[in-house]
Amino acid sequence: MMFRLNWFSVALLLTLNTFSQTKIDSVFIAKQAVDTVQLKFSTKQLIIPAVLMTYGVVAIESDYLKLINVELRDELKESIDERITIDDFSQYAPAASVYLLNNIGIEGKNNLKDRSLILGTSYLIMSATTLGIKSWTKIKRPDGSSNNSFPSGHTATAFAGAEFMWQEYKDVNIWYGISGFAVAAGTGLFRIYNGRHWLSDVAMGAGIGILSTKAVYWMYPYLKKHLFTKEDKTTSMIVPFYNGKQTGIGYVMVF
After folding, report:
1. Does 78 map to a domain?
2. Could you give the angle at which helices 112-137 and 199-226 cross, rounded to 10 degrees?
3. What is the pLDDT of residues 208-228, one digit of tens each?
């Protein structure tokens, strides 16, 4: 359990930058390319998220797909001994891995500032879309705990991070990108296993997550030119921490 909490702290600190911004001496500073790499729009890139989201939407009214949801839930209920909370942590792992890889010297496409703005904007779009649909559909969760099941926010977060990792590292090593999607898929499966979401919720969440990040990569060069024009003076480093009970590492970034 201690190991799990430590790595959750790492993922959370890497992804959300929860350390207070402060001036630090230049230690472990990596110089990266300044120019943003643009993702060219192609309708082929819409196929996977479109299929996932279409399945999710159709399943709201389709009796056949509803039956698949129920049968999968009932089958899993018979095999579940206790809830496994790894999905609460793994949703952040793909995005956190991008920062970890960059800080050990394996550089992705974009510099620290650009990739952070891309990820933040993607999360903003993904969260607004997910929460908006939840409040509109009000579908009950498989465990009956609430009426905000559709779509899966955990899955959307995981796949937004996985697409982020794919875009940053697919040209460096394709397996880095693939591993992000593997973790994201596992997150979705555990949401179903734990009785928190239907299969259709997970499919819709995955589609939203992927499309949110793709959209930002398409738009970011324009946004950077018109909104983010300040000189890049970012500084970053990895630092250890100890809170009296746990040890781990955190990521500090100063704009």
Report:
1. yes
2. 140
3. 999 999 999 998 888 777 676
